[in-house]
Amino acid sequence: IDMKTLRSKRFSNLYITGDLLHINRPSGGYSLQLCWTTGFVAGSNAAGGHVGKNAHTANNGVGQSTKPVK
């Protein structure tokens, strides 16, 4: 597995995420965070890098205000 893209080195169209990576970590919420993060990284790379670039710049209106904070 290429750990930067999470792409399989054997099968170019296969991405490995979450608990399938067998990463040693403490239990608890860390497992969920690992799944979300590796899913985002793999999904971004599977989409050719376009997802990650747009995800941070998209204005979805949630938690954003047009008024300046005083």
Describe the protein:
By secondary structure, this protein is an all-alpha fold. Helices cover 33% and strands 0% of the residues. The chain has 2 helices and no strands.
Shape: globular
Largest sheet: none
Low-pLDDT runs: 54-65
Summed over residues and divided by their number, the pLDDT gives a mean of: 75
Q: Calculate Rg over CA atoms.
A: 16 Å
The number of helical elements comes to 2
- What order do the SSEs take from the amino end to the carboxyl end, as H and E? HH
Ends distance: 48 Å
What fraction of residues sit in β-strands? Answer: under 5%
What's the total count of β strands? Answer: 0
Helix content: 25-40%
Decide which structural class fits the backbone: mainly alpha
Strand and helix map with partners:
Elements: H1 30-46, H2 50-55
Please describe the structure with a list of short key phrases separated by commas or semicolons:
single chain, globular, 70 residues, mainly alpha
Summarize, please.
By secondary structure, this protein is mostly helical. The chain has 2 helices and no strands.
